[in-house]
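So, could you explain this one?
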Amino acid sequence: MEGMTETYTLLAVCTGNICRSPAMDRLLAHVFATQDDIAVLSAGTHAHVGDDMEAQMKDRLAHYGADTADFVAEQLEPEMIRRSDLVLTATRGHVRDILSDVPDSAQKVFTLREFARLLESLDEAALTEALVSAETTAEKLAALVPLVAEQREHAQSPTSSDDVVDPYMMPDEVFDESFAQVRGPIEALRDTLQR
């Protein structure tokens, strides 16, 4: 993998692109802030195009220390999926929507929580072997995704526990739950990549 110069692109997807995927977007950007070769973006399957993220989610991100400035909701387009190296969605429904539009993207599209669950279940030796030859975080991600995709073939099918709850127009405690369901998997991914 030596000499890899292309930007590794992570795409976060939810429905409106104003709650869950902005949280994923900005937390991933926060985790990878020092990595010049990783780009993070987000979009919605039915986006509130042009809107800022919801204030309740913005508050939680700011409290965490993530940047919340200049967010603008975007509509998901098939080309965004094709250009991305890893697509993390809020729910299994979003995965289905993406695969109906871009069927050949299956090996790089997961719900965020499914990705973390599969990552956690990887064989320790295989994980170490995949990461040992990678010099950059982008190279580690590039090595991990095929392993996680392969693990999916042997793991339980995704269930509702792999979905991030939608907090849109819901009380504060639902925003707390949704933010925690986004934060946990992203922190687990960060920890794996820091090995």
